[in-house]
Amino acid sequence: MHFGLIGLGKMGFNMRARLRDAGLEVTGYDRNPELTDVPSLAELVKALPAPRTIWVMVPAGKITDDVISELATLMDAGDLIIDGGNSRFTEDQKHGALLAEEGIGFVDCGVSGGVWGLANGYGLMAGGEKSNIDAAMPLFDALRPAGDRAESFVHVGEIGAGHYAKMVHNGIEYGLMQAYAEGYELLMAKDIIKDVPGTFAAWQKGTVVRSWLLDLLVKALEEDPALTRIAGYVDDSGEGRWTVEEAVASSVPAPAITAALFARFASRQDDSPAMKMVSALRNQFGGHATKPAKPASS
């Protein structure tokens, strides 16, 4: 099968490679001429056989809006667009309605796996009509980890459901990272603890707090044991805020996720060991940029 892929950044570039490794034909487009396979969106559409399937992997917001709006004028009835970025579920519903007017199918897909997805595969959460999900299944199967499909892919529900599930996933991620980070700061603060990195390493096998995030925490400490090279500043890309907003709208108590979001806001005011760890973890699993630590005052 031959698919199109728009956006060859940190994740899209690796996704193209994983799809090709699985034997699928992929034509990619990116504004960076060093990465793209074709010079324009119009040329991408022309390069694909009908009915076309194009995966959009660009930043949420106006960039996604612009890409989908342009594709709506270039593609034909019976084609399919998949938004694999981190769009808000309410935007999916707008995009789905716009494309439906042209007879173009739409699927939203939450993607988890970060910069490690090329080797490990991606967890996928899709929303849309079953016929469109079925048409894209070869693509989903190539991207997800090998093994039981039910452990790495879910058709969550209608349009918007995939990104809603990914939003909640990211909210949980906020809380997990914050708990590890607070534990790190507490261990660092006690003088009887002589080996903080070793303590976390010892938790990797057999304990109830073992996880991939813990493995990445240990990796971050191996690379920078006292986290001296990065500032305790942690950004947020939107999903945590949306999760808290949905919790309020649905009257669902979410104190851990809410507190983790507010802790990120606090990180922009004060440098703290816990926030250094959250920043380090985001860099480890997603390749998110860190801010360098301020030089020590003389």
From TrEMBL:
Any one Gene Ontology molecular-function term assigned to this protein's record: phosphogluconate dehydrogenase (decarboxylating) activity
Record keywords: Gluconate utilization, Oxidoreductase
InterPro entries, A to Z: 6-PGluconate_DH-like_C_sf, 6DGDH_YqeC, 6PGD_dom2, 6PGDH_C, 6PGDH_NADP-bd, NAD(P)-bd_dom_sf, Pgluconate_DH
Presence of the UniProt keyword Membrane in the record: no
A Gene Ontology biological process term: pentose-phosphate shunt
Domain of life of the native organism: Bacteria
Domain 6-phosphogluconate dehydrogenase C-terminal: 162-290
Signal peptide: none
Any matching Pfam family: 6PGD
UniProt record similarity statement: Belongs to the 6-phosphogluconate dehydrogenase family.
NCBIfam families found in the cross-reference section: gnd_rel, PRK09599.1
Name of the protein in question: Decarboxylating 6-phosphogluconate dehydrogenase
Organism of provenance: Arthrobacter terrae
Gene that this polypeptide is encoded by: gnd
